[in-house]
Each structure stands twice: as C-alpha cells, then as structure tokens.
From TrEMBL:
GO biological process: negative regulation of transcription by RNA polymerase II
Lineage, opening ranks: Eukaryota, Viridiplantae, Streptophyta, Embryophyta, Tracheophyta
Subcellular location(s) of the protein: Nucleus
The keyword Repressor is annotated on this UniProt entry: yes
Domain of life the protein comes from: Eukaryota
Name of the protein in its database record: Histone deacetylase interacting domain-containing protein
Native species: Oryza glumipatula
Length: 108
C-alpha cells in the first residue's frame, strides 16, 4: 500500500503507456511474484478516476485517504474501512485494491 500512497504525490502529467514488466522469481519457491511498481499504482489510480468521473468527490476522498496514510495520520485498518465505504458497489476496485495491501490483509 506504500507504493499506492506514495504515488498520490506524483504529478498528473505522467506517461500511461504500458511497459513490459518481467516477473521476479522468488529464491525460496519457483512461484513468479510480481513486485508492484509506481506504474501499477498509477494505472489503478487512473482506473478509479475513470470509474468516478461523475462522482469526483469519491476519487478525491480516495486520494486524501492515501495522503493521510502516507503522512502517518491513519493506519492500514482505517484506510481499508474508508476504501470499503468509498468503493461500495464496486467489487472490482476492492479486489484490485487488495494487491496493494500487506500480505495476509484483504479489503474483501
């Protein structure tokens, strides 16, 4: 979630052109693990922005939640509670949000 929160400080004028990302292989297992990048976070943020074009207050509330988290004003539990309320009725956004949470913690 740190990558997502830090991304909220990135200027809006970034490239959204997809780049290929090579999955990393864990040395302990042969399972390929995708390490989240700033680009992943930006793509997710753009998805949220596009979903809420008619409700910009929801998008702004999400951004402010991420900023509050990055500044240490709120903890992970509070972020999850706020996001669950904001994204009520949008299970796709909640499922995608899970990948930014610490391992073992899920929004839904």
């Amino acid at each position: 979630m740190v990558v997502l929160a830090q991304t909220c400080h990135v200027p809006a004028q970034i490239s959204t052109k997809p780049r290929s990302i090579k999955p990393q292989t864990s040395m302990r297992t042969s399972v390929k693990v995708h390490k989240l990048t700033t680009e992943d976070a930006m793509n997710y943020i753009l998805t949220i922005k596009n979903k809420f074009l008619r409700h910009p207050e929801k998008f702004h509330a999400f951004i402010h939640t991420m900023i509050d988290f990055s500044r240490g004003r709120i903890n992970t539990h509070t972020v999850i509670e706020r996001v669950k309320i904001l994204f009520d009725g949008y299970p796709d956004l909640l499922l995608a949000f899970n990948k930014f949470l610490p391992r073992g913690i899920n929004a839904i």
